[in-house]
Design goal:
The chain is mostly helical and about 130 residues long. Helix content is about 90%, strand content about 0%. It has 3 helices and no strands. α1 packs antiparallel against α2 and α2 runs antiparallel to α3. The longest helix has about 45 residues.
């Protein structure tokens, strides 16, 4: 009975995550894509004189944010998977060890992703301050 309740709660949480997360990601991605395409079209046809270095920095920053967002979603999926493995281990030390290993490795991966975001944000801010504002 407890296993059934755990599966139902996990399934409902997973379904809610899958139904909400793609919508938010898609809305952010669509608005970014519309802005990039609008700026590119205006620049190509000479209707808008924009600063190319700022536009390039915005594009690269947007791509990095999307990639890091997908990595965050992968981290969430790994945590849920490891939790499911641990819950269904039924005292099996090998399964518990595997779940712990997945949790540790995914947490290390999250730390690396956060560090990558912090470093790239710092570098882009430093470039923007030093190059665009002499």
């Amino acid at each position: 009975m407890m296993l059934f309740l755990a599966l139902v709660l996990t399934g409902s949480f997973f379904a809610a995550t899958l139904s909400i997360a793609p919508t938010a990601v898609a809305q952010g991605f669509i608005s970014s894509a519309e802005e990039i395409l609008s700026n590119t079209g205006l620049t190509v046809y000479g209707q808008n004189a924009t600063d190319d270095s700022q536009t390039l920095a915005d594009k690269v920053g947007g791509i990095i944010n999307v990639v890091l967002g997908f990595l965050g979603i992968i981290f969430l999926i790994l945590i849920i998977y490891a939790g499911f493995l641990w819950m269904t281990a039924a005292g099996n030390d090998d399964a518990v060890g595997r779940a712990k290993k997945i949790l540790i490795n995914s947490t290390i991966g999250l730390v690396i992703v956060i560090a990558a975001y912090t470093i790239s944000s710092f570098i882009f801010n430093a470039i923007q301050q030093n190059v665009l504002t002499p």
